[in-house]
Write a structure and sequence with these properties.
heterodimer; A: alpha+beta; 3-stranded antiparallel β-sheet; elongated; B: mainly alpha; 49% helix; 0% strand
């Protein structure tokens, strides 16, 4: 599910006001590049795909509901019939975009949860907009507008060209990308840290080392 | 339904500006259609974004009918001025040359700029000469 018509309309209206003489077609075409840069650098659009893994098969197609797979964020073996079963980390790569390559040959049928980072892809929706995550314009509309204005205003010999203003908007867009990246790492939890010691390797006794895991609860 | 939606709208408005609304017309439909299609080609050269994302080819309109013209609304006036400018360019009178230049300038300004220059009417050099004035020079 992509952004709503109301959100697109609001973004377009703001762009039309600030970009005198720009056509709707040019704005929509530039939006694709803006979102492509945003998702690529922030890795904020995530989706977990449940892959039915077969014994002795190591290659699987990754088919998200929208967008195209950009990189793998995690691969876990799960038990869909019992959510209390601890997840086991599994190794995998994506040598070709959209194809999961397991590093170990599975010995039995299982279910793997593969978290992928997504990016926009063609085709556009029926209104000519790129298909994006449903939250991006709710949360980052100001930053997306900055990216759009920066790219459009950097075009030479147009009625809306303005290199100085383009530089300002581009900087603001980069800040938004960083915010989105950090927010994605922290899973949108305020006051927590992004990394914890891998729980599968922790120890509870003195022998073999002491656990230095950090909690992920809210700061008091 | 919006302003300047169809080919007939563009031809009709061009005739109004050309002061050619009473048959038999000075500029027949075939001439104005040529001017209209040439204006579209020139618009494609200046503003590719008006065409390439809607099919990548410049549409061609062979008849003065109600075929919709897929140009975004803020840029339709430019096509009218481009049509008028090209139609006037075939005339050999100094006044018409000045008007043709004016309308082509307006056409370019709308497509490329922000501020549209004013329309300066040409002056009849014969009438000016008989009144003792210097002939008008074409606007820059």
């Amino acid at each position: 599910m992509s952004a709503s018509v109301a959100e697109w309309t609001r973004l377009m209206n703001q762009a039309r006001v600030k970009l005198t003489g720009a056509s709707d077609a040019a704005i929509k075409a530039e939006l694709f590049d803006v979102f492509q840069e945003f998702y690529d650098h922030s890795s904020s659009w995530l989706e977990t795909l449940m892959i039915p893994v077969l014994a002795n098969q190591t290659t699987y197609d990754l088919v998200p509901t929208a967008g195209s797979p950009l990189r793998i964020a995690g691969v876990f073996q799960v038990d869909p019939t019992n959510p209390l079963t601890p997840q086991n980390i599994r190794g995998a790569t994506m040598p070709n975009f959209g194809t999961l390559q397991l590093t170990e040959v599975p010995g039995a049928d299982a279910t793997y949860a593969v978290t992928v980072v997504l990016n926009v892809s063609l085709p556009f929706d029926k209104n000519g907009f790129p298909i994006v995550s449903d939250w991006v314009l709710q949360i980052y509309s100001t930053g997306i507008l900055d990216g759009l204005l920066g790219r459009m205003m950097n075009t030479p010999n147009k009625s809306y060209s303005s290199p100085t203003t383009a530089a300002y908007h581009t900087r603001e867009f980069q800040k938004t990308i960083q915010q989105a990246r950090v927010a994605a790492l922290r899973q949108n939890a305020f006051g927590t840290q992004a990394w914890v010691f891998p729980q599968a390797w922790r120890t509870s006794g003195q022998r073999g080392g002491v656990s230095i895991g950090s909690d992920t609860s809210f700061k008091t | 339904m919006a302003t300047l939606d169809t080919v007939a709208d563009y031809i009709s408005d061009a005739r109004t500006i050309l002061l050619d609304v009473i048959a038999p017309f000075r500029y027949d439909d075939a001439s104005l259609l040529v001017a209209f299609n040439v204006a579209l080609l020139e618009a494609r050269r200046i503003r590719a974004d008006l065409f390439v994302y809607a099919g990548a080819t410049v549409p061609y309109f062979p008849a003065n009918d109600t075929t919709p013209v897929p140009i975004e609304q803020p840029f339709r006036l430019a096509i009218v001025f481009g049509t008028v400018g090209h139609a006037l360019a075939r005339d050999q009178e100094d006044v018409q040359d000045a008007r043709a230049t004016t309308f082509m300038t307006l056409f370019n300004s709308i497509l490329t700029g922000v501020r549209m220059p004013g329309i300066q009417a040409g002056r009849n050099p014969v009438a000016q000469a008989s009144a003792g004035g210097a002939p008008a020079t074409p606007p820059q």
